[in-house]
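User: Structure with copper (II) ion, tokens only please.
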Amino acid sequence: MKGRRFAYACAAIAFAVLVTPAAWAQKHDSHMLVTTPKDLKWVDVPSLPPGAKVAVIEGPMNEAVPFTVRIRFPANYKIPAHSHEGTEHVTVLSGTVHMGTGDKLDTKKSIALTPGTISIMQPKTNHFVWTGEEAVAQVHGVGPWVVNYVNPADDPRKKK
Ligand SMILES: [Cu+2]
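Assistant:
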């Protein structure tokens, strides 16, 4: 019993050592995680066309845990038709994000999401995104998060 408890303690310490550099940028106790805009670390998003940046607030997205991220889209940006295995919740924070459902990106078949608007996209629903101006959206859901492009040739991970 003691051995097992020790093993748990070691695992906890190893975990803490692995995850703390990012986690300590945020303020937290065991029940509350507070992230201010200056805590956000913006990085490239391999699964999206070049130009978008993501900041992970809660995650990681590739594990079976709840995640919350911010995504910054540049002006005149397009994400071709794709779907996800889970429910996608998109809350627009700034700018306008245009979203539509369908197998092909069609700027005439989208809805303009302005700041404060939230879109909830059901799993395996083909949809697309485009912007005219720079925009920031917060996306939350439950991982592991995957992006499945309708046309595999649109997948930026396959273009490298
Ligand atoms: Cu999506």
